[in-house]
Give the backbone structure.
Amino acid sequence: MVADARAPYSLPTWLVSQAGMDASLDDARARLGRIGTELGQIFVERAEVVEGALAALLAGQHVLLIGPPGTAKSMLADALCQRIDGARYFQWLLTKFTTPEEVFGAVSLQALERDEYRRVTTNKLPEAHIAFLDEVFKASSSILNALLTLLNERRFDNGRERIEAPLVTLFGAANELPEEDELSAIYDRFLVRFVVDYVVEDWRFLRMLRAEAPSAVTTVSFADLDRLSRAAAAIEIPDAVLRQIVELRRALGGAGVVASDRRYRQSLGLLRALALLRGKSAVQDDEVMFLEHVLWRDPAERETVREHLRKLVHGYDEEVQELVFQGRELAEYAERAWATPEERARARIEVETKIRRILVRLDEIEGEARAAGRSVARAASARDELDTIRRSLGGPRLSGR
């Protein structure tokens, strides 16, 4: 889907005041929102990828794009980096013939004269803020070993010295998932994973064909990006959300979908960043749903993750809505034209009994929702509607409701 064009939210006032930040941070967040809108208009059916990329930048996490050639994977990373003023960008296509010099820099001849083995990293990956590596899993073991330390610890071993790397986010792309066990560590370093494909809808494909470069390109400074990142770290994650994640982990484990503890821990920063992008002061259900791009290992597991998330986040509301539909159907059944008053009376007794059972289940749902820290407004509204139906059939209003 294309990113919507909603006006960007203002930064929550609590965040500005409590963090001691000036109003310019509100403008920086608004500009980041406009960047997302502009990119969503260019990259058709990539709204979640764009939002995930922006959140990953704020959370300092890495993104993996899996899909066939020609799906704008490298173009997205390049377009995003162009909108970050002051960010250094590195891009490379990896093959089994790619040498470490191409990625990390050539060996310094001057250092060799001093019996030192050191690389000249200027304009190479160790000095980049944002990077894109195409076919990331096809690199040689020497490149992958160095890359593992760079991704995880933001450090690069340059001769006898281990230097701090400024890398914020690395975008990796692959046509297929790695099958070798030795690549599993690199694969796990990509917190956010998207499967991208060619444009599906004809009308969106036509829109892509007609698309022109935007007349105005919104940018945000690298310094402001860092400030927004620190602001995102201050976003609250309510205990109810943490309990949801615990419950989700248990449910997915039972379904055979197991993610590392590190992945769950790192996902909290991503959820905070998403909340900030959406103008919220705390992580809510909508952000939790984004874990469908975090917790699967094989694309075949995506639907399982999505289904468990849907049940966890929207399960109460969906069951409440189903109970309301049942109550309305029962009311229609009771009011139909019956052949005799006796049949009508029996139908009303049957309907009232069933609605009582529905009301008991609504009470249970409300109790479960309260215990989980979820809103009970929908259950309360449904109970009022069903109690009104009961009373229309001649039943007394239930006390304490």
